[in-house]
Amino acid sequence: MPSLKIKIMQKTHYEKHLKFSIFLTSVFFGVEIVGGWISGSLSLLGDAGHMFRDVFALIISLSALNVSKKLPSERKTFGFHRVEILAAFMNGIFLIAIGIWILLEAYHRFHSPKPIESTSMLIVAVIGLGVNLYVARRLHGSHDLNIRSAFLHVLTDAVFSVAVILAAILICLTGKTIFDPILSSMISAVIIFSSLKIVKESLRILLEFTPKDIDFDQVFQDIQKVEGVKGVHDVHIWSLCSNINVLDAHVFTDETDMTEIQKIKSVIKQTLEKYNIRHATLEFECEECILPNKVKKIDH
User: Fold this and answer.
1) 150, 154, 185, 202: which has the highest count of C-beta atoms within 10 A?
2) d(Cα 158, Cα 143) in Å, to the nearest integer?
3) Which residues contact 175 (CB under 8 A, 6 or more apart)?
């Protein structure tokens, strides 16, 4: 399928960025662990946890890209493109777990404050912000749900790094360590909310719901407007992955000439391209089907 090959070419662009991002993020994960331990900052240790999550997310994203580039075979006729959705779903769940962990740790810090070395905390946080922004810039712009998931991981870490910097400055100026768990709680709430969107979108694809950006009735109407189409039924629309939509339908026509039927099919597929439906299976029938989901007739 040509459209699948095009998708493979688009993904290759991000592969080298992912590899370097994994290396850079892994190195700084170790730096933040040491910095968080020395400074005693929950925010910094939480950011280190996010860095570890980012390494995990980026590795899954890279693996998904490599696997999904494999062409379809007799056993796997759609290839491995659904792997990216599984990876995005796993990333989202892991992100929620990290957010809950930070909230619990912050709760304990409210009741049992600990001393914090704000200078070390500030230096490491500034470096961490730079690393996150650099990696986010490398991953920005993809329509691939899996890459977007990894990008979201890194971007939320960048926001979290800003919060750590603010906490370090406030602690340095006031001497009050309460800013550390307060900002940690705020950022973790944002992370949980944003990751829920990724999980929800992944589930929509895994459960083969109609894509949220497609109006089912409008697709129905557009097919029915094609000259030669007398009715449509058994229409199913779902997503193979984040940027490939699929449709199958039964088309009722009074045309019996195969050449004319082929022309009708071509027009329908061209019409569906605006919905990003790259793979359409159309079964033409010259007699009405008597089904619960009956044929919708039209008059031209």
Assistant:
1) 150
2) 21
3) none
Number of H helices, E strands in the chain: 8, 4
Helix H or strand E encompassing 278: strand 277-285
| Structure token pair of residue 200 | 């929800």
The structural architecture, per CATH, of the domain 2-206 is Up-down Bundle (1.20)
Instruction: For residue 146, give Cα distances in angstroms to 19, 135, 297.
Output: 15, 15, 40
Give tens-digit pLDDT for 218-259.
998 899 888 888 888 888 999 887 778 899 999 998 888 888
| CA nearest neighbour of 229 among 264, 274, 270, 257 | 264
What residue ranges in 214-271 does DSSP mark as E strands? 229-241, 244-253
Q: Quick check: helix, strand or coil at residue 131?
A: helix
Specify the CATH number of the domain 216-297.
Answer: 3.30.70.1350
Element spanning 296, H or E: strand 296-297
Q: Domain residues of the chain, as ranges? A: 2-206, 216-297
DSSP β-bridge partners for residue 251: 232, 284
Length, in residues, of the chain: 300
Residue keyed to tokens 């062409």: 71
* Model pTM score: 0.68
∠ Cα 172 177 180 (to 5°): 100
Burial class (CB in 10 A: 0-12, 13-18, 19+), 42: buried
Asked if residue 9 has pLDDT above 50, the reply is no
Note the pLDDT tens digit of each residue in 147-191: 777 787 788 778 778 888 888 898 888 888 888 888 878 877 877
